[in-house]
Amino acid sequence: MRKGKKPSVSSQVNSNGSVKKQGEQASGKKRKIFEIQQALNSDPVDIQILRKTARTVGGLLTDDIRRKVWPKLLSINIYDLPAKPDKDIREGHKDFNQVLLDVRRSMRRFPKGMRDDQREVLQEQLIDIILCILKRNPQLHYYQGYHDIVVTFLLVVGERMSIAMVEMLSTHHLRDFMDPTMDSTKHILNYLMPILQDVDQDLHDFMCRAEVGTIFALSWLITWYGHVLTDFRHVLRLYDFFLASHPLMAIYFAAVIVLHRKREVMNCDCDMASIHQLLSQIPQDLPYENLICRAHELFTRFPPSLIAKRAAHQPQKSITMSSFGDFQMATLQQRPDAILQRQTREKIPSDVAAFDESVAQGTSQIVKMAVWAISATLGATALAVAQTALDWAPEFLLQLF
After folding, report:
1. In this predicted structure, what is the pLDDT of residue 79?
2. CA distance readout (Å), 342 to 44, 75, 295, 328, 346
3. CA–CA gap between residue 71 and residue 19 (Å, rounded)
4. What global pTM score does this model have?
């Protein structure tokens, strides 16, 4: 080291603009992980803490943690997952052709460097997951972009867990998008302009004069931004946030993106074509943590109940919003996985219980072979899912077959 030159200290800028040293950042992550683990082990599970950690800087940090927390945010019992789709799930399904086309066009949603054969297996699973959910819920109607949401869950939690989680989302958070018409989706888009008006009257008026409308944000909303963001890390960070929030949070996030780009918008010609073209392209280097923090702040300051009239929206007609209160209450009554595992063990046949006991005693060769078999078929993504499943319970691994 040169004389008189101090060693550099690795640092990072917080969402509030302050500098955070690397050591402090690591310490903060450890505290968050400990807090999450404590919340997961509480009886009942401390959902409020899990929601808070999903919203705050960094979100849920890793996919391993997401595989444990996401199911709790959606009130999913990991020991009672839906069966794998039937082999004949595609036969005669009215949406099969459209789903097939959309999935075939979804190549960019898979990790770079993934082998073609691995991606093709996951695409086949993606088709079956979507058709399975639609078959189990005839009241739901497929829309283009739905696959962008499903693939995110598939890549993180695997096939059967994806069915359970996306089905819950589809009957609650995404329910209005899955009506036979787009009327409810248009109503949700109508919240955007009143939010802008409450925060920045000049920007609101400029966009109104240009008659740009809100259609530029449609793909953002119905895919939870999965279709328009190229970095999977950013998609996962937003999914942490949305899973822990009110179903309308995605439209508040759209508002903060527009507010963040105010200067660009106001420098455009005041006409629909110019502003629509600008806003329909999301920059990939957005300050996501700042925007998440601001979206949560705006939701607190201007909740949907205060905006509903100006959005020409009647909440009682929204299945999503009318069911959200009951959904929230249900998430508060969950037991920790250790208890769910014990309850499941009491119901399973003795041979499966014996298998569980052998693993507990350290005889895990069968499990290792199972993980190897999965990884050989599906590659690194499925291997990560299977390895995390071991932290949950051998029963979960058995359900993968």
Report:
1. 92
2. 15, 18, 40, 25, 6
3. 34
4. 0.81
